[in-house]
Write a structure and sequence with these properties.
The complex is a heterodimer of chains A (328) and B (90). Chain A contains 8 helices and 11 strands. By secondary structure, chain A is an alpha+beta fold. Chain B has 90 residues and is of the alpha+beta class. The chains are: A alpha+beta (328), B alpha+beta (90).
Chain lengths: 328, 90
């Protein structure tokens, strides 16, 4: 299975021979190691390879990412981190300005932040528990707070400050076990995607450093998942914004089904679920005439440890034991 | 990588561990990112043999360490501001 995958990746890689060889060697080393881990956790050899490949990502997606790197290297060099720092500072300043402004004018809630529609049976933003997140944000200054995905003790936030019409800021906050994880991205593009100019060459934070987006993208989307304990996965969410020429956004679920996600008034979409068979594994944007504009695939959220993820370290095991005592 | 050289798989495991499982990365996307950072002089890499396996190991360059320090400062600043906006945790 791994060999077939690497054959496909090789066919799709647009890179000089030497670089292609290096990429394939790295991919093979990764897949072999990941598959060995799965086998050690009890998977059959074939299952282990399939899981390792699924987590690695489709050959097409990986080849596209490498093509972007090649393109970026060809362009005049820019200091990624330096640019990222400027972007972060800009985004932070916008958010902070909104907060400070609000503290002067008193508590307000954002005028609207819920979905135009939710999928039946799925928990969503609009849940009163989460509305308090948005207090303290001045709706006059912050053009969009478009969604939240929910899980037990968790919330995802997608915010798009448009005060300066210069970008989209996406923040995600989640409670995982005992820790709070925060990540953010700043996209230097028009916040409502009215124009296609602007290339998000730099992305920020953990995800930014580890991800790159297609240069001419139709969606900005953020996927996250987690569970009530480090050894369990219980929720997954995806939130995002669609460019103005996107007519339909479709989510593919882990079980293979697909559902259309309605765009709200800000062309935002979102989906959140606690059902494993409904976890999002891909988001697709369709344009005029049903033309596929972009597909973003996601790995299914995996537990931090336990089962196929391998044994839990002492710290995580202590959290698990305590959670079990609290919530048997 | 600030704590030492790592290969791609090890880096993903470390991110997973440190993030408390919060970042469900598509693992293969880490490599293009590493290659990009290397091409920018922020990382250096070499092949290494460990546990009977040959792996490409990455380390931060001096330039990378400087960029990391700068990025960390900006990141902490952002987190503080986001927390100001969001208020209490759920």
């Amino acid at each position: 299975v791994i060999n077939d995958y690497l054959d496909e990746l090789e066919r799709r890689l647009a890179a000089p021979r030497r670089r292609r060889r290096r990429i394939l060697r790295e991919a093979r080393a990764h897949l072999v190691e990941a598959a060995a881990r799965e086998r050690a956790a009890g998977a059959t050899p074939a299952e282990a390879e399939r899981i390792a490949i699924a987590r690695f990502g489709s050959a097409r997606a990986i080849a596209e990412r490498f093509a972007e790197v090649r393109e970026a290297v060809r362009r005049p060099r820019r200091a990624l981190i330096a640019a990222a720092t400027i972007g972060l500072a800009g985004a932070a300043s916008l958010v902070a300005t909104a907060a400070l402004h609000d503290s002067e004018s008193g508590q307000r809630t954002v005028a609207s932040f819920s979905w135009s529609e939710r999928l039946p049976g799925e928990p969503f933003a609009g849940d009163p528990r989460f509305t308090r997140f948005y207090r303290g944000i001045d709706s006059d200054r912050l053009r969009m707070v478009v969604t939240a995905g929910v899980g037990e003790q968790r919330a995802g936030v997608l915010a798009a400050p448009g005060a300066a019409d210069d970008g989209v800021y996406i923040a995600h906050v989640g409670l995982i076990g005992e820790r709070i994880a925060v990540s953010g991205e700043f996209h230097p593009v028009n916040p409502v995607f009215e124009v296609r100019r602007g290339r998000p060459d730099t992305l920020l934070g953990w995800n930014g450093l580890l991800r790159s987006l297609p240069r001419d993208y139709a969606l900005v989307a953020f996927n996250s998942g987690g569970g009530p304990r480090p050894d369990l996965v219980g929720w997954s969410t995806v939130v995002g914004l669609a460019r103005d020429d996107v007519e339909r956004v479709v989510v593919r679920h882990a079980g293979g089904e697909e559902s259309e996600l309605r765009l709200n008034e800000w062309r935002a979409f979102g989906y959140s679920t606690t059902r494993a068979d409904r976890f999002p594994v891909a988001v697709k944007a369709f344009g005029d005439g049903g033309r596929l504009l972009q597909e973003i695939t996601y790995a299914r959220p995996a537990p931090l440890c336990g089962g196929s993820a391998g044994p839990c370290d002492t710290e995580l095991q202590a959290i698990i034991d305590r959670k079990k005592r609290e919530q048997p | 990588l600030s704590d030492g050289a790592l290969h791609g798989y090890g880096l993903i495991e470390e991110v997973r561990r440190r993030s408390g499982g919060g970042f469900a990365l598509q693992e293969g996307t880490v490599y293009p990112a590493l290659h990009r950072l290397e091409s920018q002089g922020l990382l250096a890499s070499r092949w290494s043999l460990g546990g009977g396996r040959r792996r490409r190991v990455y380390r931060l360059t001096r330039k990378g360490r400087r960029a990391l320090a700068e990025g960390r400062r900006a990141w902490r600043d952002l987190i503080e501001r986001v927390e100001l906006v969001l208020g209490a945790s759920p």
